[in-house]
Amino acid sequence: MAVEIRPNASASAAQSTEVGVTTQARRGEEDSKASTSTISSGKKFFARIKDQEFAKKSWKVLTWTPKRCRWDPEDPPKFGMGLNLLFGFASTFTVANLYYNHPILNILADEFNVSNERASLIPTLMQAGYAAGLLFLCPLGDIFRRRAFVLILVFFTATIWLGLCLTESFPIFLALSFITAASTVTPQLMLPLVGDLAPPHRRATALSIVVSGLLLGMLIARLLSGILTQYTSWRSIYWFSFGMQYLILVLLFFFMPDYPSTNPGGLNYFSMLFSILKMIFKHPVLVQACIVGFCTSSIFTSFWTTLTFLLSEPPYEYSPVSIGLFALVGIGAMCFGPFHSKAVIDRFVPLFSVILGLIYCLAGVIVGTFTGRITVAGPIIQAFAMDIGIQTSQIANRSAIYSIEPRARNRVNTAFMVSVFCGQLAGTAIGNRLYAEGGWKASGGCSIGFIGAGLVFCFVRGPWEKGWVGWRGGWGIRRRDLGGGKMERPAMEQALEEGSEDEKREAVSGSEAEKTDEGRMKVQDNGS
């Protein structure tokens, strides 16, 4: 019996092995067919993109301007509250693309079967892509007509974002994250445009609405991502962002007016990039704003990254959703910003508002640092005071730097934002390291040091000082008019007039050169 059973057992084992091999082979064939169909469909898609007719049609649609949005020098479009709010809305849900992944990195690691350390490459590459877009794309706003440029970037971001919603490959997800982050710089094109269009007495208020949208996007992205991912799938938040990008595209297409380039004669791209470096050595107010922006952005990211660790540990032990709801404190502060800007920033010199914002930050950080382990009220007070302070100082700094070179506002904004971005990286790295080694008070003490450094650089140079160091011009904190009751005109008018004057000078110099050549020809004829 034993001898007879063994052959049957071996035969059954062989049959099961054959069945397993056959099943694996079928699965392999199905996977290969699926991958082949995916690759072929991808090739068809990119072949269609490469088709000249498709490119031409897309270009015509994106560059066509509705009649109500076209530029008329006799009756230029008005910059009202509706357009201001549209720019703020677009800024919120555009910059949010960079932060949807922050609360769900552990879920993305499980989805793509990678370690948490590998998953952390997603926000790192998105930050790197955003920095590349700031440095290499934003300066082009000084050359191109900004309506068409903004629409093309939004369309490109929304279309490539579809790959993030569908891909199951981690390397492809990383590559698309970098690309979409690089093109997610449209808010940094809108801010200089607001500085161009808004009247000087309303510039800070107008800027505060867009800046509030930027900071709101950083917070609301974490909130929405955490809630949607907990109750649905992580892809839901990416599909939500995909729809929002096309909604922004449609709204901007029908309501964003067309404005002429501030440099209609064109600029050399590489010399334009080099001019950003020259600005830093030319304008003391820009350097002062960049240093303060570095300090304030560092405490922002340091607080919001270490706050997660604080609230998830004893004595709090909050759930991820509860930690995400903590962002509502920051959202309340953002909504308060425009009213504060109208009451303070529009009435006083920018330096006064910058110092006031740093004092708000200092008070909040001190309270939160020394009470954060005792009561949750400490971090709440810190978040509210710090967000108001950072928003106040950023708006005031932008109001100051946008007046230095009207025809180079996008390059000025690039220099400022690169310093802000470097501050965010430094705050994240230093804050996390100090929290790991010394806890909540160590990271808070570092934030106090950054604020102190910012205050020192504020007092090195006065509000009316033209040079690098000193307080020449007085200590007055109220804005001054240009004399005779005439206030400064909107910057767009100045930039266009400067451009037309340059063209006139070129025309005059060209006509003088022609007259000189004609005179030389006559002398030569007489001599002969």
Automatic annotation (TrEMBL):
Domain Major facilitator superfamily (MFS) profile: 80-528
Pfam families in the cross-refs: MFS_1
Region (Disordered): 1-37, 482-528
Record's keyword annotation contains Membrane: yes
UniProt keywords, alphabetically: Membrane, Transmembrane, Transmembrane helix
Subcellular location, record wording: Membrane
Recorded topology in the membrane: Multi-pass membrane protein
Presence of the UniProt keyword Aminoacyl-tRNA synthetase in the record: no
Regions of compositional bias (Basic and acidic residues) in chain numbering: 482-491, 502-528
Compositionally biased tracts (Polar residues): 9-25
Gene Ontology, cellular component aspect: membrane
An example molecular function term from Gene Ontology annotations: transmembrane transporter activity
Transmembrane region(s): 79-100, 120-141, 148-164, 170-194, 206-225, 237-255, 285-306, 318-336, 348-368
Protein name: Putative transporter
Organism: Lachnellula hyalina
